[in-house]
Design goal:
Layout lengths: L1 E6 L7 H16 L3 E6 H8 L10 H12 L2 E7 L7 H8 L10 E8 L7 H12 L3 E2 L4 E4 L3 E2 L2 E2 L2 H17 L12 H9 L4
Helix pairs in contact: 1-6
Bound molecules: flavin mononucleotide.
Flavin mononucleotide binds next to helix 1 and strand 4.
Length: 196
Amino acid sequence: MKILGISGSVKRPSRTLHIVERIVAAIGQTADVEADLIDLADAAPVLFRALRADQLDEAGRAIIDAVEAADVLVVGSPVYRASYTGALKHLFDLVDFRALQGRRVILAATGGTPLHGLMLEHQFRPLFGFFGAVTVPTTVYAVEADFTEYTLSNPAVEARIARAVADLFDLLPATALAAGETHPTLRVVARETVAN
Ligand SMILES: Cc1cc2nc3c(=O)[nH]c(=O)nc-3n(C[C@H](O)[C@H](O)[C@H](O)COP(=O)(O)O)c2cc1C
């Protein structure tokens, strides 16, 4: 099973990157997975060389291919201007609209204020609804005060991570958990709908 973490922060150090890494690591503790990470602090300058998918160069295409090939996405963003970052939106604008159908997605965000935690429900979840992806019910939101030196230090957020990962496994077909296997529905359904 291929897990791909995507951090939408465009700077380092990054609380969002840390949270995404923590979630990916928590999944890896429960199942045999192949884990990878896209950090937009590196990837955004590559992706912005293209304004459309047909303009992607080899490096940009490899990033988008990794997104389209993942069985499970862990997508995190800092809240910027009450939404997810423009860099993250650009990445998803380059993803084929059929490619993520049925894929499982864990959503995470970090922000300066707890008041913007619902960005996850009002902005972030609908993006994956567009793709026909299956977002897990539990989201992970942390504010700056939940970190010490960019490392998560609030047990309540750690508990949310554990719950989100438990949700994910509830939503995965049993065969997807077998070592090295990818459940066909996670991959093939999107291709079949192309003809419709
Ligand atoms: C350009 C910019 C816009 C921001 N807008 C918001 C916002 O609207 N709401 C909020 O709660 N925090 C906002 N923040 C704070 C960041 O979301 C917060 O510091 C976040 O944890 C940064 O994540 P990072 O460490 O992964 O970059 C903003 C920060 C920046 C740089």
